[in-house]
Amino acid sequence: MSEKRKGKHTTKRGRFVQTVVEVEGRTETRVVELPAFEPPPWTAATPLTIVGTSPLRVDAAEKVTGRARYTADIVRPGMLHAVIVRAPLAKGTVTAMDLDAARAMPGVRAVMGTGDAPAATRLFRRDISYAGQPLAAVCAESLDAAECAARVLATSLRVDAAPHAVIVDDAIAPDAPLVRKDGNTTAPDVVERGDVARGLAAAEVTITREYRTPVALHSALEPHGAVCEWNGEHLTVWESTQGIFRVRSDVAKALTVPQAKVRVLKDYMGGGFGAKNGAGAHTYTAALFARQLGAPVRCINDRRAEQTDSGNRPATVQKVTIAARRDGTLTALVLDALIPLGISGWEGGPAQIFHELYACPNVRTTEICVYINASGMQAFRGPGYVEGAFALEGAMNALARALQIDPVALRLKNLATRDERANREFSGNRLDECYTEGMRRFGWTSTVHRPPPTVTRVKHGIGVAAQTWPTGGGPPSYADVRINSDGSVDVLAGTQDLGTGARTILAQIAAEALGARLDTVRAVIGDTERLPYTGNSWGSMTTPSVGPAVRMAAEEAKARLLEAAAQMLDAPVESLSTNDSQVLLDSVVALSFSDLCRKLGNVHIVGHGSRGPNPELAIVTVGAQFAEVEVDPETGVVRVLRVVAVHDAGRIINPALAESQLHGGIIQGIGYALFEERHIDRARGVTLNANLHDYKIPTMADVPAIDASFLDGADPAANHIGARGIAEPPIIPTAPAIAAAVADAIGVEVCEIPLTPWRVLTALAQ
User: Fold this and answer.
1) Which of 659, 728, 749, 752 is catalytic?
2) At 136, is the secondary structure helix, strand, or coil?
3) What are the start-end ranges of the H helices in 192-322?
4) pLDDT at position 602, please?
5) 316-472+616-765 fold
6) CATH number of this structure's domain 71-162+224-300
7) pLDDT 10s digits, 344-389
8) Does 450 score more than 90 pLDDT?
9) Most Cβ neighbours (<10 Å): which of 17, 327, 482, 559?
10) What 3-state DSSP class applies to 370?
11) Domains 2-56+474-610 and 71-162+224-300 agree in fold
């Protein structure tokens, strides 16, 4: 306790401080006696700025030197290898499979088939619903031995084939075979606001288009995989996942063990894009074999399994009607969508963006999900919005052409100023500035009254599209910040880094809140047993969910640090501050974190943080993208020349990492627009391009000049770090912007992607 007297700080007898310390993993409150303190010569401090800068990624050295450990790098003593045998056709019943022949193969330790896995895992069922479905599995002493035995098992497989439907048209036909016992379609999901009939009647111009988008495969560089090891009744899982706690929950439930006895670890990850949100067949297979054999087991998808049975972005068929007055004011928007999910998936589709992007008073969307005999969908970067944006923005561009209005001017006229769907205000929305800045950077010239395409071989065109995406994050999310006895700092959060740089971002947030040097702060993530809970890394939620919890924890740790410093310096705590890992008294350096902590002794100062509820506001990231393309009308080949992207995502914690997210999303969007499409043999129901040779994704030769930027400025209404999510938004407007540019180049719309040469040539011919 201290008091001020005659302008100097004095302390009453007894130099003690109460602080929270960590002892053997437990936190407890202690009263610590402070040693005698002799202040160093005081010097002025220069404030450090950490958030908003682009320091080197904290994991850069590990990645470039190859020390970063992915799931496939995990090697445990006596580890065995598992391989899954998958269905060779789309629908049928297993009538025979020679498990004994596989067991007799050299090196084989165990085989599982029908009835050998708990029902909750949904593994190894006799009834086949799609090609690639797991039917059996082999575990052996080496991967080669397991693969050989799996081939023997697959050869012995006998199946009674049944009629199937692998495309939406077949599944909704009057004589369609039954895909699922509960039918082939869901009930229509109709969402309406206003009076659509009145809006259509009030229109002076109405256009209707049908847009089709393909099944797209995630194609992450690292496939799904897990290593499982039991120690008595306790299971450890090393998993390539976007959600360590969800994997723990899935495994515990499926294997009927307490969550407290399941530990999930994830160090590094080679991409997920939404497909790695929980446990999968590989996880359960490894865990079951490991328990049966008393040895660690690795099960990792090969590329064919990855491309056939790890999820996908579902195709859509979207009929869009858009109506407006002559001045461009929207009067009605109507969407009727079919979404072939596969054999399973969550019932969501492209409708939501129709209710959010524009201030149209009359909107009706109808979605019908269709089940087909193909692997089930999974979330894929911007799920629903990517598909919806292609149709909505395509229709807006078609309307602009019909009205002879510049497409940017049309969008600005119908700019949403509030969230009409949920009837609430935005925490921040600067889409108008995104258009303005994008036009400036792109050198946009109106596409109205452009001269008809010249008779040159290569045609040039430009296009624009916009996006919105909910990015508020939210609870539950917890974090601890621990100041160690040498003044270094650990940020502890049970989140995961998909490659976006979460370690660096969380370290930056903690360092700035603490007033610590960034090189003294380490983010520890990816362990369900030793770290506080956070949710999945999906929906662009990690930074706006975990970041506020980290900042709260850092502020609490800083407060406790300053309480100790106040006692040591014989000063009121309100006169103290921190900067550059030093404690300042009246803005002058008094002592370093390391000196203070060393004098406190072998204790840890710990702050706890949590993510509070979101405000009653719509928290969104918005943006606009402009594309320039060239099209060869003789070959139909489209080449993207450049993309300019401007997005509004609140405060940008690390500009370099944020720009990297924009580049990655745009490149994926180019693939979606031009190349990516799953092809299934309609007769056999088998994927024909289940590899990275025939399933085309962009290479460096396809990447155009990309000018990607964010508007500057925090969103304090969203959360107390002022940041919104940025992972999903950049992929959303890319394909429609490119399609608009192609239409501008050749003078005709192409309403189905990918914009392959044959689709472009067909549109030209028609």
Assistant:
1) 728
2) strand
3) 196-201, 244-254, 281-293, 303-308
4) 87
5) Aldehyde Oxidoreductase; domain 4 (3.30.365)
6) 3.30.365.10
7) 998 679 999 999 999 999 999 999 999 999 999 999 999 999 999 9
8) no
9) 482
10) strand
11) yes
